[in-house]
Amino acid sequence: MKKYSLAAFLLFLCVGVMLVNQRTSEGEKMNTWPNLPAPIGEAPMLITSAGQATEGKVFSFITKDLHLEGDYRPRALASDLYDYSTLVIVAGYSPHGLNQTYRSIKEEKKRVHRLLHEAERSSIPTILIHMGGAARDDEITWSIMEESMHHLDYVIGFREMKQKKELVKLADDYDVPVTLVDEMEDLRTPFNSVFR
Amino acid sequence: MYDDRRIAIGAVGAFLLLIGLLLPTYTTDWTSWLYENIEWSLQSNDSGRLMITALSYISWYLMTFLFIYLGGMVLANIFARDHSSLLYQGLFVLIVLGSVYAFNELYNEHYSYLIHLLVLSILLFLQNFIPQQKYFYIMYIVILAFILFSVQWLNLIPGMTKFGFGSDDFAVSIKLADEYLTDHILFNTLSTILFGVFFVIAIIVTTILHLYSKQVMISRQFQEQTQELKETRGALIETNVYKEIHSLVHDLKTPLVTVEGLLSLLAMKIQDTKSQAYFHKINGSIEKMKDMVSEILYEETKRALHVQELINYVVSHISLDDPNIDLKVKVEDDLPMVRVNKIRMSRAISNVVENAILSLQGEGGEVNVRCQESDEGVLITVQDDGMGIDAAYLEDIWEEGFSTKDSSGIGLPFVKNVIHQHGGTVQIESEPQVYTRVDMFIPFQSKEDNKDDSRH
Hints:
The structure holds 2 protein chains of 2 kinds.
Chain A: H1 2-26, E1 45-50, H2 55-65, E2 70-72, E3 86-91, H3 95-101, H4 105-121, E4 126-129, H5 139-148, E5 154-158, H6 164-173, E6 178-181, H7 188-195
Parallel strand pairs in A: 1-2, 1-3, 3-4, 4-5, 5-6
Chain B: H1 2-26, H2 28-43, H3 47-79, H4 86-106, H5 113-126, H6 136-151, H7 169-182, H8 185-269, H9 273-297, E1 303-305, H10 307-316, E2 325-331, E3 338-340, H11 342-360, E4 365-373, E5 377-384, H12 411-421, E6 425-431, E7 435-443
Parallel strand pairs in B: 2-4
Antiparallel strand pairs in B: 1-3, 4-5, 5-7, 6-7
Helix pairs in contact in B: 1-3, 2-3, 2-7, 3-4, 3-6, 3-7, 4-5, 5-6, 6-8, 8-9, 10-11, 11-12
């Protein structure tokens, strides 16, 4: 029996961690904005990635489905913003995506920071999208969101996320409206409300 | 020697771990291909391409973790050889989880630890059923590969994300692309099926190997029992032969008495000196024959004998055909007499000398027989420089029926029995591939025993 004890312990540990993870990611229900009461953005929009995850690409396809005019430029610089009326930042840190750009995370954060500054200076509304949910709630992605918050005009994220409470509180501190949704399909309505 | 082996095994384990940890550095083309393919599947709205990418992702991690698990197993083996011991299992778990932590830190990854807790748990359970035989490591690798391949599909089941599975970069990207393309239907279904199928295969493979090994073990036991039965039958036949010889020898007594009686009649009738001398000689021979018959028939029959005479009798009965074997005999001068059953004692010494000769057969060497005085007795030492006896068998060789040379296994127990009957002791000492030495101690004839009772 002794030879099975560690196997049984690991199995129990696994089940325990699974239950804890489920409770942490779901947590209590929170009331957020269902969508914006009035549009704040205008087309064309510049969609860029903060962290080079695939989410940027996926989101660009959603905007196409919504017939919104804009470009997806994952490595856009502050100087590229002059042509656009709205900035959409899709947050999500991907080590493999970043490897494709030959940039470090520090350089990536600096690029995003400059873009946000430029948008603020040019009075361009900035929207942050976090569509990784519980699967992409790592520290680096969270730090990107945290550092960007005071430049933002609207945040759309997933309800299933570890830092959900902190996100809502942070947005509240900077008077940024937040909408949390259950799944990707639900992103469309709040995002549409930015423009229409 | 033992430490050198441990160092070599440790180096192999560390090397395997290192390969696992450094594999992503040498496979950047592969990972770029994965990343680009996820984007391409979105671009072309192609869920089939996404599925191929998912298979490739599973294979990439399978390779990486296979090396890490094997390295962990080899390293844990240095400190504990028994795979079912808690020490081995604990070390194995620590090394694997530590390596996964190092992997995550090294590449800024968030590979789920839950997968490894589950893989380790299943592996530690199943390894108890993998037969510890010749192909253990191959079977272990096959089963480990199946488990890793199946459990990793949990990373790609979107429904398992909230439990902490599939938090690594590629898994998140694949699941997002799948949500956009099929609303999670494809991966919720296929990943669950693939996890189930490969998990069941891993269990079936382990069960088949376990049953096969049991079958092999049973047939091996059956073979051993058949061999044992054959040997016992041989020993029984041998015993029956000895019994018949015993009764034949017993039957010799009657004609001998007749010859002795008739000879005494002849001696009374024919009185010339020459005939009387012949009768005396014949009578002496008859007495000798009677002594021998008594010694064969009665174990307790003993007589006083010079050690030299005993050894000469032993050597005269040994046939040495191999010219490469050198038999050297040395008997100390002026040894007091010993009181022995000549036939049985000489047979016992012959057994030991014949064993020594047998151990040199084919290779040649030297057999030394030495007789010297030692503590109120004579110490007869038989030493050879043959293959020796494994230390593990030194106790068993005195057991009846035990043999390392497919013989009946009654030789050495007979030696021990005879020496003990004479109040002596027998000891064996051996070093494999160096020497074997048998020391037989027989006490000298005491004054009370001086009366010769060899005639019955």
